UniProtKB/TrEMBL annotation:
Transmembrane segments: none annotated. This is Glycosyltransferase 2-like domain-containing protein. Pfam families: Glycos_transf_2 (PF00535). It comes from the Bacteria. InterPro entries: Glyco_trans_2-like, Glycosyltransf_2, Nucleotide-diphossugar_trans. PANTHER family: GLYCOSYLTRANSFERASE, SLR2126 PROTEIN. CDD domains: Glyco_tranf_GTA_type. It comes from Rugosimonospora africana. Residues 7-121 form the Glycosyltransferase 2-like domain.
Length: 310
């Protein structure tokens, strides 16, 4: 049986400098019929970069749309695609050799399946202050992959996309753009809608790519708060698939109480300032274990504030 055709969809927002490497890596695989790069309404020169690359490679197609978020950009790309399979890649993900061909093979004997590839983040070889967002991200991504392998049923309900494929007809039936723009956990929300639509998911480490991750402390904490807001929304919207659990529930008792108190309106300004100061100080002193611990505590506070809607 021949392999199904593949359309690659890369959505991008303000990552102009990452695009040449991301596009070149997936273009090295001869299988994709087209590489659609959807620029989500950013005027940083991304569209011009893709347009120039398209002049050199006719498989590359730049698409401009007004800013609507990642889900809307993915929807635009899938609607424009012509392949049997759509391979959805983030703009900071660099495909490994034969990635699109591997995704096509994964779908050859499957229907109604979301295929999730592997995209580890390389932690900094030499730790510097402020590296904790990437260190934590790399560690937590590997933990998520281990959960996928220990509990395959969790792939569809805890989807971590960025290197993901499914049949185009399934993507259009479910819709890439959710009913509400969450700002975080949009991948998980898409997976939950896929589950309700009867799709299943598999995780395959052999479908490998490399994820480049970088966040400053403000982005790190803003995403934590959005994560808390999204968790509450997902638990309320999909109670049959997502447990409504306090995000501090797994913390030790004393730390849980401290985080809960620090998240209250009266204590938050003081706790936030003190912990941010501690993160800066421990980073300058190269006390990286302490820096990471304090940053995680800050993140737990923001997560809880988001979950409580504050």
């Amino acid at each position: 049986m021949s392999l199904p055709s593949v359309s690659v969809v890369i959505t991008t927002y303000r990552r102009r400098d990452a695009l040449p490497a991301a596009i070149a890596a997936i273009a090295a695989d001869p299988h994709p019929a087209e590489i659609l790069v959807v620029v989500d309404g950013c005027a940083d020169g991304s569209y011009e970069v893709v347009r120039d690359l398209a002049a050199e490679n006719p498989r590359v197609r730049p698409i401009w749309r007004e800013n609507g978020g990642e889900g809307a950009a993915r929807q635009t790309g899938v609607e424009s695609a012509t392949g049997d399979i759509v391979l959805l890649l983030d703009d900071d993900v660099v495909a490994g050799p034969g990635l699109a061909t591997g995704h096509a093979r994964a779908h050859r004997d499957r229907t109604g399946t979301v295929v999730l590839g592997y995209m580890p983040t390389t932690a900094p070889a030499v730790r510097r202050r402020g590296d904790f967002p990437t260190v934590l991200y790399a560690r937590e991504y590997e933990q998520a992959c281990q959960r996928y392998e220990n509990d395959p049923g969790s792939v569809i309900t805890a989807l971590w996309a960025g290197n993901m494929s499914l049949r185009r007809e399934d993507a259009l039936r479910v819709g890439l753009n959710g009913p509400r723009r969450l700002g975080y956990h949009d991948d998980q929300e898409f997976g939950l809608r896929c589950a309700r639509a009867g799709l299943t998911a598999v995780f395959d480490r052999s479908l490998a790519a490399r994820h480049s991750h970088s966040r400053d402390v403000d982005s790190f904490l803003r995403q934590a708060r959005l994560s808390g807001l999204a968790r509450r929304h997902l638990a309320a919207t999909y109670p049959d698939l997502v447990a409504d659990t306090d995000p501090t529930g797994t913390l030790p008792g004393v730390l849980r109480a401290g985080v809960g108190a620090a998240a209250t309106p009266g204590m938050y300004p003081l706790a936030n300032a003190a912990l941010r100061g501690g993160v800066r100080a421990t980073g300058r002193l190269r006390m990286f274990g302490a820096e990471t611990y304090l940053a995680r505590t800050l993140r737990q506070i923001e997560l809880l504030r988001g979950y409580r809607g504050r």
